[in-house]
What does this fold into?
Amino acid sequence: MSQVTRLQELVYELKVVEVMTTKVITVTPQTTMAELREVLRQHRISGAPVLENGKLVGIVSIEDLIKALAAGEMNVAVRDRMAQEPVVLRTDDPVVLAVDYFTRYGFGRFPVVDKNGNLAGLLTQGDITHGLLKKLEVEYHEEEVRRYRASHIFEDIASDHTSVSLHYDVVAHEFEHAGEASSKIKRALNRLGFSPQIIRRAAIVVYEAEMNIIIHASEGGALVVEVRPDRIIVRAVDTGPGIPDIERAMEPGFSTAPEWVREMGFGAGMGLSNIKRCTDEMRLQSPLGVHTLLEAVIYLDQERSHGGNRGVQKGSR
It folds into this structure.
């Protein structure tokens, strides 16, 4: 299967309004072809929409001008040479539709109208190319800034041990707020400048740990995410009944969630195995009737990070 490039993705993601030209030179139906020639020459353009009383009534191009010049009809009004009822694009159309239009019709430009049918801009193939390259440049700059922030966040802080600690309280059986901690950690890590891969791994770990507390803890618990220069540590603690058999609990599909939780679509038994898959180290302590303490580590150094767990260290049960 061939890979989809970021440029191909952007063709589908961007809207026409994001790449079109908004400063549009227009003419009226009464403009003569001689006057049109001067407008095109002065502004170095190859065509213009034709407006009458503010409404789009046609479009005229340099090809129309050349034909008028060859026929000796330079004093003829634009209305006699323009293309009436022109094919238009809308501001909220995806750029991929515009690409299809250029291929289908073979025109050099398309007027762009808003939801009320008023002229909002003009689109050429050059506008699309320029818009895509500009978006790629912005994304590249943002990526460079992100990488700089991620690599320099701790450099200017002098201490023997520096970290950023994020604390999230989790209420037992409060399913309507399930996933909130995961969403918050994603935003926090994104603002701190971490890579999408690291953010995704951490978000999965936090989500699964959060769900385990919501489902199993009798009095709720807490999630603490500690960001260090070389690693991210997720600690989840709850006051639940504990885990009788940790090895079995690590098996995909094994769940002790009550039936009413499963009927809601939760408790599929993949939480701990998903956490293990996304971490480099995982420690689990669960003394019966006391609490469950989970610690998951994601290394930021690629040489130490394997994108998956090396093993589970078990504490007292």
In short: The two ends are 48 Å apart (CA to CA). The first strand starts at residue 47 and ends at 52. The first helix runs from residue 6 to 13.
